[in-house]
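notes to self, project folder thing:

trying the whole complex as one job this time. last attempt i did each chain seperately and stitching them together was a nightmare. two parts in total, labels are on each line so i dont mix them up again. if this works i'll redo the older ones the same way
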Amino acid sequence: LAKTTQPISMDSYEGQEVNITCSHNNIATNDYITWYQQFPSQGPRFIIQGYKTKVTNEVASLFIPADRKSSTLSLPRVSLSDTAVYYCLVGAGAGSYQLTFGKGTKLSVIP
Amino acid sequence: EPEVTQTPSHQVTQMGQEVILRCVPISNHLYFYWYRQILGQKVEFLVSFYNNEISEKSEIFDDQFSVERPDGSNFTLKIRSTKLEDSAMYFCASRGRAEYEQYFGPGTRLTVT
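result (full assembly):
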């Protein structure tokens, strides 16, 4: 499994765009990049998944450069309710039976 | 929106006792998982289950643990003889056949005294 590295914590003001970058230098050819969000005392929640270039959904965007050794989760105009831990996971997409979580990035949104 | 449910939300038990944590996955999902999260630590995979058998399990999932899908809706995790270090939040998750997203339940907080 590819090891991931992401910042331990980030602070942002409400209304700002937040970019969280994850490094995964040893990503394999068949690995997908997936981001989950976890609020305190709740289960993780899927945000977005991508393989290369850019993916966008109603919640976030995911930017993946050509070498795929890193990825950036972009949250537009964050609000207080976006305060959570964000996890970057790398694994073989739909065929992966288990999710391997790291320590994640604790995002604190400040009023 | 369909969701995974778990009961109880909080379970307190004495060391050495057996506990059963219950989950109701999303109805048309076929893959089921248990994870745990010790307070302040990362989410750890325990076991995956498909077609009425274990697909994968981690080193944590030793002989004290077992899973079962006793009927068409429930998915249970049994810990035979609880230890203090089993105190954690236990999350159940499920996934559909054509999906990559795992849907997590709200968790059961297990406290072993």
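what i see at first glance: Residues 32 and 94 of chain A are 9 Å apart (CA to CA).
need to look closer tmrw
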